[in-house]
């Protein structure tokens, strides 16, 4: 394709197929990419898609699915999700963080991981988090998604024995600075075992969490 060089060999090299970043792509480019990838692999996964992009892809590939919360545009054969393995806990501070959390959760599921969702358990009502402590600690890795001051990752890091992937979100008032405040809080955490991805990068968190989960279940 003149405008794109699709990497069909990526799964052989890295264990993960190529994923489409939909945001900003011209309509024709996006449709042609989805067609080519579906023809080659029988499955396609795209992030940061819009309703308009869903509608134009659906005209060509009617089986495509769109989730407005996560903005994921995908074609996933039923058998692909039949044997999900391990366990990744995806935890949010608030309901407003769920869109980023769902990007992480659905990414991990697409790559073959079992996901436990624990939403709206932020530190302003910390009893909610403590009530779910066993479910969170039973996972092989935890994704902590939080905006505002981003304290959730530090609290979880001090409670569980598993790696924590912190995802700062752009949720918050002015001094949140579009997620920078939460990012700095997570980077400066005094809790151990925490790594941090970029602001709103649910996809990146779901990817690395799957790598950790595969190590835990012995498939790497």
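Sequence proposed for the structure above (220 residues):
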């Amino acid at each position: 394709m003149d405008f794109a060089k699709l990497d069909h060999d990526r799964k052989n090299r890295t264990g993960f197929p190529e994923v489409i970043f939909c945001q900003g792509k011209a309509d024709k480019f996006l449709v042609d990419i989805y067609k080519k990838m579906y023809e080659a692999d029988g499955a396609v996964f795209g992030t940061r898609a819009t309703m308009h992009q869903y509608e134009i892809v659906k005209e060509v590939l009617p089986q495509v699915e769109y989730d407005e919360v996560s903005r994921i545009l995908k074609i996933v054969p039923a058998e692909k999700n039949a044997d999900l393995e391990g366990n990744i806990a995806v935890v949010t501070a608030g309901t407003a963080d769920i869109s980023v959390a769902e990007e992480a959760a659905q990414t991990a599921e697409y790559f073959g991981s079992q996901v436990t969702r624990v939403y709206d358990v932020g530190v302003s009502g910390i009893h909610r988090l403590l009530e779910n402590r066993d479910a969170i600690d039973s996972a092989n890795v935890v994704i902590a998604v939080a905006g505002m001051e981003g304290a959730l990752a530090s609290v979880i890091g001090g409670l569980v024995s598993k790696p924590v992937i912190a995802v700062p979100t752009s949720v918050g008032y002015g001094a949140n600075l579009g997620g920078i405040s939460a990012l700095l809080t997570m980077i400066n955490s005094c809790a151990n075992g925490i790594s941090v991805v970029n602001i709103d990068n649910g996809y990146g968190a779901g990817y690395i969490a799957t790598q950790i989960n595969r190590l835990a279940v012995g498939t790497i």
